[in-house]
Amino acid sequence: MSVRPTAAPEIEQLPEPPLRRSREIQGNILAAFNKDYMAFRYVRFPDGAGGRGWLSVMLNTVSVTAAVEDFNEEFSLSRRAYGQDPSITATWVGVSLTYEGLLQVANRPADVTADLESFTAFTQGPARRAADLGDDGTSAPQYWLFGADNSGVHAVLIVAADTATALNEKLENIAAADAAHGVTLVHQDDGRTLSGDLRGHEHFGYKDGISQPGVKDFHREDRDHPGHRENRQGTVLVEPGEFVFGHKSESGQPPAAPAWMNNGSLQVVRRLRQDVSGWNQAVVREAEKFTPRTISPDLLGACLVGRWKSGKPLAKPQNPVTGTGSDDNDFTYENDPQGEYTPCAAHIRRTHPRHFERSQRRRIMRRGIPYGPEYTIADDESDRGLMFVCYGTSLEQQFEFVQKIWSNNPDFVPGNDTAPNGIDKVTGTVTGEYPGTPDAHIVLADGSEGTVKMQRFVQTTGAVYAFTPSVSTLRKL
Ligand code: HEM
Q1: Omega of the bond prior to 292 within 30 degrees of 0, cis?
Q2: Could you give phi then psi for residue 387, rounded to 5 degrees?
Q3: Residue 43: beta bridge partners?
Q4: For residue 11, what pLDDT band results from cuts at 50, 70 and 90?
């Protein structure tokens, strides 16, 4: 009897999403740096030549999307297979320039000014936008550690590493480059993921970094759920031009920008100090006021965030039999128009209301990390908070819109017009423009009801808007 060789099963080769391999787009925009240690250095150039000399050194150390994404994939595969593997390490560097920094290093600054005429928020910088964004009182620029004076910071450097030793080694090299080119350090922030059970959580205790936009041409599409990221139901894929210039955006066209901005992105950095004991006390106090019976502080905190500390969403199950969805990001608020499960004041509902076609042009790629020591009752005074970082191609239509029109604005109701409402109690603050009440009115499905009166326990202590250029543009500077 002859044995017929069986043909090897054909392995379908899925095409690689083109941006996945980009060596032009800097890391952290599409592929997250995702490191336990991150330093943020805000620096100032002595003059154009010094700035250009410094940038030519940074060019050799800057990390690109393909390298970061390869690493992230290898890291998560090996973690799934063997648990944490300390031998897989990498140190990443990203460099961005403020408007003032671009003017310093440009050969023809007048051309840059003309090119950026419509980039009002970027050219004005966050200090001049502060009043509009609710950065007043103790959050006003006069108290900021950096960024208050638009001409103070020329570049933002993010250095990310797996260990403090690796980070410090890299920082030593960078400090040497600074010294060689007369570049001065305006301020440095040190980000550090929290330890133990709080790993991946922010200082109030909630898991962070769960919901991020998926990006067409970078992430694969799920075959069974068109329009969603592979294996991540609930993560809608949006056009790459929402985050990177020179690519199609949700409007159908690439964002209007000069060619030198192609494959670059706009970066927001905000140093947000968190008063953890203030938040904890307010949540206990306000939970007791609920009627007809009090609710637990844990539940009230979850209502204000939209997720439990574990990251599990409060969202009403899409399918009551199987639970919320396939994972912690697979939900919308369409089945909860009154906010009985996720109140309309909840941080995640206001910052991403998930009414699809309208929300997707407001998405931001968040890349934050906590700074400062972990909170303990004995140490509630230390300066701690979130280094909030995000990327997008329009400061006005993305970050500023989310902060101003959604978080701060009591007239915006991310549900039925009649739904109980209130501003975002995590980061929202009422600006003069919106006279409505800032209180958060919550009516839950079990009938418990309360009006939460609490101040914002997040204070802005520094801010920068910067442009993260492509590698080719960096090379040409
Ligand atoms: C999500 C906390 C600042 C926008 C979240 C989550 C937490 C959180 C716990 C849920 C986890 C997740 O889905 O990733 C905080 C804290 C902040 C802060 C403690 C300040 C100290 C901001 C700011 C903005 C913002 C300034 C933008 C103006 C968002 C967005 C989401 C989110 C867009 C994802 C919502 C979703 O897609 O469901 N934040 N956040 N956050 N936050 Fe913040």
Answers
A1: yes
A2: -80, 100
A3: 155, 185
A4: low
In one letter, which amino acid is 398? Q
For atom 18 of ligand 1, the residue with the nearest CA is 427
Tell how far the Cα of 347 is from the centroid of ligand 1, in angstroms. 7
Query: What is the identity of the amino acid at 404?
Result: K
- Check if 307 has its Cβ closer than 6 Å to any atom of ligand 1: yes
Q: What is the pTM of this model?
A: 0.95
Residues 304/452, Cβ–Cβ less than 8 Å: yes
Q: Is the CB of 461 under 6 A from ligand 1?
A: no
Q: ipTM score of the complex?
A: 0.99
- CB 112 within 8 Å of CB 476: no
Confidence grade of residue 1 (pLDDT, cut at 50, 70, 90): very low
Residue 187, beta-bridge partner list: 42
Structure letter (DSSP) for residue 428:
-
First to last CA, the chain: 73
Q: What is the pLDDT of residues 246-267, one digit of tens each?
A: 999 999 999 999 999 999 999 9
Give the model confidence (pLDDT) of 378-431 as tens digits.
999 999 999 999 999 999 999 999 999 999 999 999 999 999 999 999 999 977
Query: 97 C-alpha to center of ligand 1: Å?
Result: 25
By the 8 A CB rule, do 214 and 229 touch?
yes
